[in-house]
From TrEMBL:
<comment type="pathway">
    <text>Amino-acid biosynthesis; L-cysteine biosynthesis; L-cysteine from L-homocysteine and L-serine: step 1/2.</text>
</comment>
<dbReference type="GO" id="GO:0044272">
    <property type="term" value="P:sulfur compound biosynthetic process"/>
</dbReference>
<comment type="similarity">
    <text>Belongs to the cysteine synthase/cystathionine beta-synthase family.</text>
</comment>
<feature type="domain" description="Tryptophan synthase beta chain-like PALP">
    <location>
        <begin position="13"/>
        <end position="329"/>
    </location>
</feature>
<dbReference type="InterPro" id="IPR050214">
    <property type="entry name" value="Cys_Synth/Cystath_Beta-Synth"/>
</dbReference>
<dbReference type="GO" id="GO:0006534">
    <property type="term" value="P:cysteine metabolic process"/>
</dbReference>
<keyword id="KW-0663">Pyridoxal phosphate</keyword>
<dbReference type="InterPro" id="IPR036052">
    <property type="entry name" value="TrpB-like_PALP_sf"/>
</dbReference>
<dbReference type="GO" id="GO:0009069">
    <property type="term" value="P:serine family amino acid metabolic process"/>
</dbReference>
<dbReference type="GO" id="GO:0004122">
    <property type="term" value="F:cystathionine beta-synthase activity"/>
</dbReference>
<dbReference type="Pfam" id="PF00291">
    <property type="entry name" value="PALP"/>
</dbReference>
<dbReference type="InterPro" id="IPR001926">
    <property type="entry name" value="TrpB-like_PALP"/>
</dbReference>
<protein>
    <recommendedName>
        <fullName>cystathionine beta-synthase</fullName>
        <ecNumber>4.2.1.22</ecNumber>
    </recommendedName>
</protein>
């Protein structure tokens, strides 16, 4: 959870302030001389980077008078994590919540939403974003039908990128600039590159502005977009596998959200990622670094490693002290029943140390016989 040395007033005070940690084992396996760093957003109180925008949107709407205590109903179309953040915020604030969410999103997300008091409406995965039956279309219809309903709209709400410009970005900068350079871990004392997978795009847009405006104008920002999505720029990057279904949740869209800046001044480079690459990277983060992350974190890491092998990224990879930050948006909590996770979690080999003794196998065999 977010760290604090004093008593917090409520759960919203535990949003953000997540750690930035070294991914040294993966860096060593890849032969990297730079510092590979992961921003662990699953350690926020609601379990994801979306806690930040949920808090910011609710507080801003209260200030503007759009949300009225005891009256307003919050409705939000979401892949799940923004919904969880909003349901958490509304539980604290006392608002009713309705979440519209595509069927492909995990049962764990729905369970958490319901546990927080939200009503969940599932929508077909195959509907385009502008269909009345998509999660956006259904949310809009509910808003028209329900008195005092408000859609905070993460796709257009300026408080989405602003939350990251004012909190996530400065936290990254503070962690890097507050950690002294040393013989063991040389540091340029600045963020030299930042890599993130994109969903609404508010995260990468806001953090980019925080890094480039006041910290390091030369920081390279790399966006990762799943094959089948159309967020990457230029558009030619999206032609292969366009509209192809993908399993990884929370990133990529079939439309361009208003909060995403595709201006090269904000996002220098885009790369595409596949489900296979994402899930293999998740396994590496778990087995090598002990980090229980979700699929979009795997997309970000796999994209970062691909970029570090590119012509642009190689000079960063080969330079001691360069700080490469990868955003890890959420944890595995929301995906424990997903086939991609169970495939390696329950079928993967144990650590090599266990293989040096047949004692475990003998014990397991005896337990199986006893159960018959």
């Amino acid at each position: 959870m977010a760290s604090s040395r004093h008593i917090l007033n409520n759960a919203l005070d535990a949003v953000g302030n997540t750690p930035l940690i070294r991914l040294d084992k993966i860096a060593a396996e890849e032969g990297l001389k730079c510092n590979l760093l992961g921003k662990l957003e699953f350690m926020s109180v609601g379990g994801s980077v979306k806690d930040r925008i949920a808090k910011a949107m609710v507080l801003a709407a209260e200030k503007d008078g759009r949300l009225v205590p005891g009256q307003s109903v919050v409705i939000e179309p979401t892949s799940g994590n923004t919904g969880i953040g909003l349901a958490l915020a509304c539980a604290v604030k006392g608002y009713s919540v309705i979440i519209t969410m595509p069927n492909k999103m995990s049962r764990e997300k729905e369970a958490l939403l319901r546990a927080l008091g939200a009503r969940v409406v599932r929508t077909p995965d195959t509907e385009p974003w502008d269909s009345p039956n998509s999660h956006l279309g259904v949310a809009q219809r509910l808003q028209r039908e329900i008195p005092h309903a408000v859609i905070l709209d993460q796709y257009r709400n300026p408080n989405n990128p602003l939350a990251h410009e004012y909190t996530t970005g400065p936290e990254i900068v503070d962690a890097v600039t507050s950690t002294p350079s040393s013989p063991l871990w040389p540091s340029s004392m600045k963020v030299d590159a930042f890599i993130a997978s994109a969903g609404t795009g508010g995260t990468i847009t806001g953090i980019s502005r925080a890094l480039k405006k006041t910290h390091n104008p030369d920081c390279i920002v790399v966006g990762i977009d799943p094959v089948g999505s159309i967020l990457a720029f230029p558009d030619s990057l999206n032609e292969h596998g366009i509209s192809k279904p993908y399993v990884v949740e929370g990133i990529g869209y079939d439309f361009i959200p208003e909060v995403l800046s595709r201006d090269p001044a904000d996002v220098d480079t885009w790369l595409k990622s596949t489900d296979e690459e994402a899930f293999k990277a998740v396994e590496r983060l778990m087995r090598k670094e002990g980090l229980l992350v979700g699929g979009s974190s795997g997309s970000a890491l796999s994209g970062a490693l691909t970029w570090l092998k590119s012509e642009q990224g190689r000079k960063f990879a080969k330079t001691e002290g360069m700080n490469i930050v990868v955003l890890l948006p959420d944890g595995i909590r929301n995906y424990m029943s997903k086939e991609w996770f169970l495939n390696f979690a329950l079928r993967s080999d144990p650590s090599p140390l266990v293989d040096q003794s047949d004692g475990v196998e003998v014990l397991e065999a005896s337990m199986r016989r006893a159960a018959l």
